[in-house]
Amino acid sequence: MDIYSLLRQDHQNVYALFDAIDKNSDAGEKEHLFKQLKHELDLHTQLEEELFYPELLHSQRTGDRVRHALHEHGEIKNGLMKLETTDVNDPSWNEQFVKIRTQFDDHIKEEENQLFPQARQILSKRLEEDMLARVRRRRDELTGATATAGRAKAKASQVASSTSSRMREASRHYVSDQARQAAGQVHGVAEALRQTASSLEQQGQAGVSGYLGGAADGLDRLSSSMRDGDIDAVVHKTTEFARRQPALFIGGAFAAGFLMTRFLKSSATHHEGGYEAKYSREAH
After folding, report:
1. pTM for the whole thing?
2. Which of the two residues, 33 and 279, has the higher pLDDT score?
3. Tell me, what's the pLDDT at 271?
4. CA distance 189 to 228
């Protein structure tokens, strides 16, 4: 095999992919085949531009034709990039695909029928053999680099997924710890409400005492959910508790603070009054 046979073989591989895409109606398979087509064309054009065309670019007999071929390469690459960003189900996708194939057909006819025969007259056999070896070696380098990049991408994706899972788990543990701490605080509020309710009941304020007792029971149930349930359940139960019993969830805490303040003030006044009466009797 010489350099021209190798390049013709590349052309045939590309034609086979064009035909496969043209005959396939499945969008997913068509998209997969297009990725192969783009890879083959990118590889082929890079090999020609790096190793084949430079030997012919400065010859008076082939220079203009090589420059025209480079221009055609640019048009095909632009078409491929446009096609890559277009949904395969979009009608414009097929229109662009046909345009690229037509450009490729014209390019290959000129290259194989005109440029290759002229190149045979210019390049020595030794240079052709050296070019063939360099193209093969460069192809191995490029395909190996692509495979390595693919493996690296897959590995990076795997690591990212694993890291994300660990972060989610760590976050869940952190939130669980915070939920348990919050549960203890909610339980503390419930106990304060219960003590206030008991004191108010002793003072004959049964209505308010019952209200605070209900608030304490509701907060205790919420505390248990926060301590024992998973995070999603805690969020759900907290939301439901707040929605169904807003007075107990929000108003209860404010009422507890307000009533507790009033109770303590009342108790202080009561004791003050008792002391004053006691000292007044002792003075008399």
Report:
1. 0.53
2. 33
3. 45
4. 18
